[in-house]
Amino acid sequence: MAKSDIHTHIGHNLPPTVLTIFGATGDLSADYLLPALLHMDSHHLLPKTFKLVCVGRKPFTSKSYLDFILKKSRVIKKLAPAKKAKFLKYLVYHVGDFDRPESFIELAKVLADKEKPKHECHNRLFYFATKPQQFAAITKILQTSGLLMACAAHERKVRVLVEKPFGFNLKSAQSLNQLLLKYFSEDQIYRIDHYAGKETVQNLMVVRFANSLFEPLWNNRFIDHVEISVLEKDGAAGRMGYYDSTGAIKDFLQNHILQMLALIAMDEPYNLTSQFIRDEKLKVLKALETLKEKFASHLIKGQYEGYAKEAADFRKEEGVSGTETYFALKAYINLPRWQGVPFYLRTGKRLSKKLTQISVHFREPVRCLFEGCSANVLTFQIQPDEAVHLQINNKIPGFGIKLHQADWEFGYKMAFKGEIPGAYERLLLDFLEGDQRLFIRSDEIEAAWKFVDSITENPQFKKLPLYKYRGGINGPKEADEFMDKDLKEWWTK
Ligand code: BG6
């Protein structure tokens, strides 16, 4: 049994760092960022000299802020007093208000003071965890308040990490890129997609390129189709302010699903530097075929029953919401390797369970000697119960020859001792280290939005029927019929 390397990574080798989080009182901070940082602290993954500056509008002290987070967080169950005391040594809460620019000049002083005692220059890292509407304001404030000016001898560059959603269409993503690139160079900007930080998503490149078994077969000669399914059990209530104006396509296709698709479909990069990895992903994203005249036959939209009421309750007024909480899409990649291979992509809220899977369906043997040959299917179980499965034909013991489709399973829990690092821990650590490989480059984001815009800004999009589905099942029946028409069925049940 191999050991996961979470305990062997030495954060103490990292240079002195001040990490500033804007939006520190929000859900993302409470449910993902602070739990990840606390966990990293207990595994010695934070730099030896480290300060965490949490910026919010609410008037907290550092201690009352941590108490607030511990109460609010749906993830942190309890924190031992010793751990809390240790973490409080790093933590500085700062009241910052975008309507009060002087509060950020005060923040610049706080940061400079952290560097003063030992005259030690710190890496200055900024995490934009606010509402996306505030990203532009934060960027400008960083520039005008002196926050970007580290101590004089400092040669290291400031880094900024920008949360999703990165824009709400191509135009807004382009403007945000332009704004960021006015103040920072591309190697200072970390656009996050937390799916890229999931262990099983990182494993896609390894399985594909570290095994000579798969790559020769990874093309339209041997692969019949690919399915990427993200089933979610939760509904959208609680996030209506964001979700009702976003919908499943912008919320999931633009980032998580297209990122997984790029990793499944890309060519082998020349090496493992962020430039070459991202160049290869970009080629896939740019080669996505727009639906054009196939619009209605390649896309299904759905909405769970009860959603419209949840949306109306949130808005405190009656009204019908046309937002899709489910989509199924047949996409093609216009590259020689993938000619004619459909990629079935879908996600939905309020489905039967939480499950993310990518299944690669190979073609059946051209001629099968035996009765009952089935196509091989390689399934990456992204979450939960992380695993890779291979469906393969075997003989059932006994007289005669009868076939059995066996499942060769490589399960993470069986294979690896110890903990699997969480996506945010991995990405925060990469951010601290200055490793951009798992982050998204400006051209990738824009290529993804271009494809998504070709769907959501097409006048036919609004006219497509919005099929209702009951919560607890896996989407509208029309999505099953959509597969029936291609003589296929969803692999992920
Ligand atoms: C977020 C989406 O980016 O990812 C949510 O906005 C979604 O709608 C979430 O629920 C899913 O993340 P995970 O890691 O729980 O699969």
Q: Would you give an account of this structure?
A:
The structure is a single chain. By secondary structure, the protein is an alpha/beta fold. It has two domains: 3-163, 3-Layer(aba) Sandwich (Rossmann fold), CATH 3.40.50.720; 196-484, Dihydrodipicolinate Reductase, domain 2 (2-Layer Sandwich). Helix content is 37%, strand content 20%. The chain is built from 17 helices and 17 strands. The protein has helices spanning 27-42, 62-72, 81-90, 102-115, 135-144, 170-183, 199-210, 240-243, 247-265, 274-286, 295-298, 307-315, 412-415, 423-433, 442-456, 459-463, 477-485, and strands spanning 2-3, 17-22, 50-56, 91-95, 123-128, 159-162, 189-191, 223-231, 299-304, 326-331, 343-348, 355-362, 377-383, 387-395, 403-411, 416-417, 466-469. The strands form three sheets. A nine-stranded mixed β-sheet has the order 15-14-13-12-8-11-10-9-17, with helices on both faces. A six-stranded parallel β-sheet has the order 4-3-2-5-6-7. Helix 6 links the parallel strand 6 and strand 7 (189-191). The radius of gyration is 24 Å and the shape is globular. The chain binds 6-O-phosphono-beta-D-glucopyranose. Residues 164, 194, 232, 251 line the site of 6-O-phosphono-beta-D-glucopyranose (BG6). 6-O-phosphono-beta-D-glucopyranose (BG6) binds next to loops.
What attributes characterize this protein structure?
Rossmann fold; 493 residues; six-stranded parallel beta sheet; Dihydrodipicolinate Reductase, domain 2; nine-stranded mixed beta sheet; binds 6-O-phosphono-beta-D-glucopyranose; 2 domains
